[in-house]
Amino acid sequence: MTVGTTRFVAVLSSPRRPSADPSSGGPPSPPGIDPEEFRLALLEDTYEVAAGLDLVTPALVLDPPDQPDAEAITWPGTPIVRERGLAAAFAALGALGAEEAVLLAGDAPDLPPLLIGKLFRALGSAPASACQARGPGGPDGLVALAARLPLPPWLDAALADVDLDTPDALARLRAAAPRPGQVPQGPAWHRLRTRADLGVLDPGLEGWENTRALLEGHPLSS
Question: Alpha-carbon distance 56 to 10, whole Å?
Fold first, then answer.
C-alpha cells in the first residue's frame, strides 16, 4: 500500500429483512440463538477485522441510521456514517478525509485481513476493486468493494443500482466502466446469510470470537 494515503475500512450494518424464499434457509442463527444477537456478533467480528488493520481507520456505516446496538460494538472514536447506499457511504468517508476506502459486508466475521490488503494494492492501478462473495451456485454479490475517492462519475452512477447483496454486482460494475481492468477482482470469500452458510466456518481459523462464543454447543451445519 502506498505510504501516506489516508485509508478507511468501513463495515456496513444493514439488517436483512427475513426472506420470503423458504429455500434461503432462514436466519443464519441456529435454533436457540436470537437472530439479532447473532447478527450483532457477526458485525462485531467483522468490525474487529477492520479495527485490527494497520495504517487504516475503521468505521461503521449504518443503514438504517438509528442502530444504537450496532454503534455499541465499536471502539471509542470510531467514525459512524449514517448513509443509505454505497455511493453515499463512499462520499461520507471521503468527507472524513479518506482517499481510499473499503466497504465490508457486516456478515463476514472470519474474513482474512490479507484480502483487504489485496484490494487496497489493486487501487494502485485501478479506481476500484472488489472481492466477490461465494454462494452455493457460484459468485453471489460482494464481500467487499474498494475505491479511490472521490468516486469517478461512472462508478458513482453505477452504485445507484448496486449494493453488496446484488448477485451480479461485479459484472454490473465492470459493464459500467469505460474500459476493461477498472474493477480488478481479489480472492473470493464467504458471507453468513443463511443457516446453511454456517458450514463454511472453520473452527481452526483464528478470529470470529463473538460468533464462535454464540455458536458454542451448536452444530456448524444444518
Answer: 10
